[in-house]
């Protein structure tokens, strides 16, 4: 099997003086790309460290109550009557309780098992919040409590009350970090000598359930220069309370209830799941001037919805400031792969020497690079795309490299040979099969139109949105049921951590009046550094090349197995 280059995990990024790394070159026809700090480092390097109130003496430990306090009762005596003392437990509320110390000479003394917030134990609020960071709800908390013999866990009322506190805290921190992101975007606009309040934003929606049948969706706007979340909206097509009261609709009791409920009703969307993204983007555009004093003049979309048409119909800033559409290069690149897979299936072009999955991946990658390397000129994009097609169809008898970049540093090996006068001895690899060439030429022409390439100018992507979406559903997993409030909490926490790192978690804990101990503070400080180091390593060219090589190797191996074994899995194959 072919080998592939591996990244060096011991190398870390040095922001003050970048180190020149020796990159293992892959035997391919792709030129090198300049290394730069990861997006995580660029974001977190601008974070203002929150001055958390840290109590170094605060810590929790797990003990077995009976064993520990039975031993203590044998070692201790009452200072007054000099007789044995006895320890018992009382007043359990969730994971907190009172330790009762009693003897024969006086009334018993009660000691709280931990600090309290108003009338509730701090451990309950802390545990619910931390479990929420792990994507675990009340059932998971109580399962943990029961199997660990901590008690019965939390009641519905107690849990819902804590969730309300968490919601208010994370919403407050979310609004703070979004305003900070807007201010940073304005500064970067000024630095680039652009209008301060005219933003380029990328928008994308994500749903709780796959298949566009979800009742919950999250839509986000991210600033292009900062890569930080500026605004988000969670849409919900249902409200649990409304469903519970539906059977009483039309009664006086229902009318009285609805008067107090309609302002806090969690159902804020009517229509299909796909319409959630359109409505949310329109809502965020319409309130941008009132909320932040800025305008979103350029919308970076993925082209898979009618969101931009909704923005045009809304016309949020009037005819004097129309919103411009830009395409995400990553999604444009995916169109090539989708079209090639479709033509392979429709025209039956599969098999060795034809349109294999490895070849599709290769053509798709080269098409994307042709756009990415020429983001300032439509003509250069079109020339580079044509060069890709010509290069793949060239032969020794008929070389077609007129559009390939010239020079010794060209990605085209024929051009390299030309620069040293050795084209006569150069041997071309096998060209595309004639049937493949004939069927993919219309695809290349269609994906090289000026209308499409014009929207690719600037080289914008939605990578930040895709990364954020994954973060949300780690906090509210798709395979577990979550209500609108839980999804809101997950989205707000994800945005805060996405923008400010784990420093934002300390801010939320402070707002929740949770005591921040030494271990929690140290974790927050180390987590962000690990995140930057990990992403710096992943953004290195040798790491990217290794990932690409692994994918190509896996696809080639799978194709080999399928050809050798035949079709073993397909609908109705057993009939």
TrEMBL record:
Residues 60-412 form the Mutator-like transposase domain. InterPro entries: Mutator_transp_dom. Coiled coil: none annotated. Residues 1-39 are annotated as: Disordered. Residues 16-25 have a biased composition (Basic residues). It comes from the Eukaryota. PANTHER family: CCHC-TYPE DOMAIN-CONTAINING PROTEIN, KERATIN, ULTRA HIGH-SULFUR MATRIX PROTEIN-LIKE. This is Mutator-like transposase domain-containing protein. It comes from Cyphomyrmex costatus.
């Amino acid at each position: 099997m072919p080998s592939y280059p591996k990244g060096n995990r011991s190398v870390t990024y040095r922001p003050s003086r970048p180190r020149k790394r020796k990159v293992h070159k892959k035997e391919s026809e792709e030129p090198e790309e300049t290394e730069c700090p990861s997006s995580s480092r660029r974001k977190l390097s601008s974070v203002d460290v929150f001055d958390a109130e840290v109590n170094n003496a605060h810590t929790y430990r797990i003990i077995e109550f009976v064993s520990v306090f039975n031993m203590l009762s044998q070692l201790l005596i009452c200072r007054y009557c000099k007789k044995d003392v006895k320890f018992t437990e009382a007043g359990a509320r969730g994971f907190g309780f009172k330790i009762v110390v009693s003897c024969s000479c006086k009334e018993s003394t009660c000691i709280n098992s931990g600090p309290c917030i108003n009338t509730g134990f701090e451990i309950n609020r802390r545990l619910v919040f931390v479990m929420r960071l792990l994507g675990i709800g009340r059932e998971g908390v109580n399962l943990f409590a029961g199997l660990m013999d901590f008690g019965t866990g939390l009641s519905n009322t107690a849990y819902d009350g804590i969730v309300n506190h968490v919601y208010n805290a994370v919403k407050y921190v979310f609004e703070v970090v979004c305003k900070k992101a807007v201010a940073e975007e304005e500064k970067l606009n000024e630095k680039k000598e652009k209008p301060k309040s005219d933003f380029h934003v990328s928008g994308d929606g994500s749903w709780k359930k796959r298949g566009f049948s979800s009742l919950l969706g999250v839509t986000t706007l991210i600033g292009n220069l900062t890569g930080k979340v500026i605004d988000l909206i969670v849409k919900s097509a249902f409200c649990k309370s409304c469903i519970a009261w539906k059977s009483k609709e039309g009664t006086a009791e229902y009318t009285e209830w609805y008067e107090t409920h309609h302002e806090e009703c969690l159902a804020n969307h009517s229509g299909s799941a796909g319409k959630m993204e359109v409505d949310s983007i329109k809502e965020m555009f319409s309130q941008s001037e009132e909320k932040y004093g800025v305008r979103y003049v350029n919308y970076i979309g993925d082209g898979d919805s009618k969101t931009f048409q909704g923005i045009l119909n809304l016309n949020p800033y009037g005819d004097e400031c129309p919103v411009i559409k830009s395409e995400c290069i990553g999604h444009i690149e995916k169109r090539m792969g989708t079209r090639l897979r479709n033509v392979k299936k429709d025209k039956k072009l599969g098999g060795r020497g034809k349109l294999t999955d490895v070849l599709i991946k290769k053509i798709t990658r080269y098409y994307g690079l042709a756009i990415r390397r020429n983001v300032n000129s439509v003509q250069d994009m079109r020339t580079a795309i044509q060069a890709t097609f010509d290069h793949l169809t060239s032969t020794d008898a008929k070389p077609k490299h007129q559009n390939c970049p010239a020079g010794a540093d060209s990605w085209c090996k024929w051009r390299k040979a030309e620069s040293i006068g050795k084209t006569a001895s150069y041997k071309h690899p096998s060209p595309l099969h004639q049937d493949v060439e004939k069927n993919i030429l219309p695809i290349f022409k269609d994906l090289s139109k000026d209308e499409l390439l014009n929207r690719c100018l600037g080289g914008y992507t939605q990578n930040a949105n895709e990364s954020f979406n994954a973060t949300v559903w780690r906090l509210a997993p798709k395979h577990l049921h979550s209500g609108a409030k839980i999804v809101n909490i997950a989205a707000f926490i994800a945005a805060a951590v996405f923008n400010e790192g784990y420093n934002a978690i300390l801010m939320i804990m402070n707002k929740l009046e949770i005591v921040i101990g030494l271990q929690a503070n140290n974790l927050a400080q180390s987590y962000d550094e690990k995140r930057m180091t990990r992403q710096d390593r992943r953004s290195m060219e040798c790491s990217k090349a290794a990932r690409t090589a692994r994918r190509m190797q896996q696809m080639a191996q799978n194709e080999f197995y399928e050809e050798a074994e035949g079709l073993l899995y397909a609908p109705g194959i057993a009939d």
